[in-house]
Design a protein that fits this description.
Blueprint (H helix, E strand, L loop, with lengths): L2 E8 H4 L8 E4 L2 H16 L6 H10 L1 E6 L1
Antiparallel strand pairs: 1-2, 1-3
The chain binds zinc ion.
Length: 68
């Protein structure tokens, strides 16, 4: 058993009024941004994440410790 740290983000953290319950967890911020970009494209029709939204995303990222 070991504790592992993950970066976690929910769509609602970035867009509280968006009503999207998507949550993502990744080992690194780079990986997380990649997953967020994919989700934004598929579900929110954003071909790329605008800089101001990327800043919001980074600000909303939480580090969680998971027991694996
Ligand atoms: Zn979403």
């Amino acid at each position: 058993m070991a504790d592992k740290q993950y970066k976690q983000l929910g769509c609602l953290d970035v867009q509280p009024s968006g009503g999207c319950g998507f949550q993502v967890r990744a080992e690194t911020e780079a990986e997380l941004m990649q997953l967020v970009a994919t989700h934004a494209k598929q579900c929110h029709k954003l071909d790329s994440i605008p800089p101001e939204m990327a800043a919001k995303v980074r600000a909303a990222v939480r580090t969680v410790t998971v027991n694996v």
